[in-house]
Write a structure and sequence with these properties.
The chain contains five helices and eight strands; from the N terminus they run E-H-E-H-E-E-H-E-E-E-E-H-H. The protein has 203 residues and is an alpha+beta fold. The relative contact order is 0.15. Helix 1 packs across helix 5 and helix 4 packs across helix 5. The chain has one domain: Maf protein (Alpha-Beta Complex). The longest helix is centred in the C-terminal third of the chain and has 24 residues. The chain is 34% helix and 25% strand. It binds inosinic acid. The site of inosinic acid has 16 residues, from strand 3.
Length: 203
């Protein structure tokens, strides 16, 4: 079944499709829709809602969105909701590797390396029916990058439950522990119930 996913990030689509199974996640760019809403919320949940509403206003169909990031305790929760834009200067975005290397430099000499990946998912069925789920994956920042799987900060994030970086884990193992994995499993159950209902009403 087709479901709009309010994102421009192919890695996230890949993860989310794998996690939800049975849904064809359609990104705005797949349909030539220009989509770059101002993510000016102050929390993951606010930003997930901004993205969902912005796409819903265009397609008027159920929309799923995700906002996520890495919150590091010793850095007061940074990079947090700004994880995708960490270190950006004069509009020049850093590569994933540049971002995690900058994080390692900012963590030099810091003993408390605890951190969490956070994912907020928003399902907007219509303007009055909105579901939010936020989950986290607890861990710590590694001393050096390790692993080649995953994306973003995965090579420098050691998942507590796994004892290795998210980039050292095969995708299915990351899904078991990850913030997005936990949130998506709950969202999958909800989607099945709600979209099945919508389908029945349309028949
Ligand atoms: P946004 O949700 O698109 O605003 O961006 C979230 C950013 O957080 C991503 O671009 C990554 O840098 C980072 N991030 C979120 N989830 C993960 C993950 O599972 N692994 C590694 N980095 C992540």
């Amino acid at each position: 079944m087709k479901l709009y996913f309010a994102s421009g990030n192919d890695h996230k689509r890949q993860e989310m499709s794998r996690l939800l199974g049975g849904y064809e996640l359609v990104l705005p760019k797949d349909e030539g829709i220009a989509f770059d809403p101002d993510e000016d919320g102050s929390t993951y949940i606010e930003n997930a809602m901004i993205k969902a509403k912005a796409l819903w206003d265009i397609v008027h169909q159920p929309v799923l969105s995700d906002d996520s990031g890495l919150s590091v305790r010793a850095l007061g929760g940074r990079p947090g909701i700004h994880s995708a834009r960490y270190g950006e200067e004069d509009g020049r975005k850093l590569s994933s590797e540049e971002k995690y290397m900058l994080l390692l430099r900012n963590m030099e000499g810091i003993g408390d390396r605890s951190a969490s990946f956070i994912a907020a998912l928003c399902l907007m069925l219509d303007e009055e029916r909105i579901y939010i789920i936020q989950e986290r994956c607890a861990g710590r920042i590694a001393m050096a990058p390790s692993g080649a799987a995953g994306f973003g900060y995965d090579p420098v994030f050691i998942i507590d439950e796994a004892g290795m970086t998210a980039a050292d884990l095969p995708a299915e193992d990351k899904d078991r522990y990850s913030h997005r994995g936990k949130a998506a499993r709950r969202m999958g159950a909800l989607l099945e119930r709600e979209l099945e209902g919508i389908r029945r009403n349309q028949q």
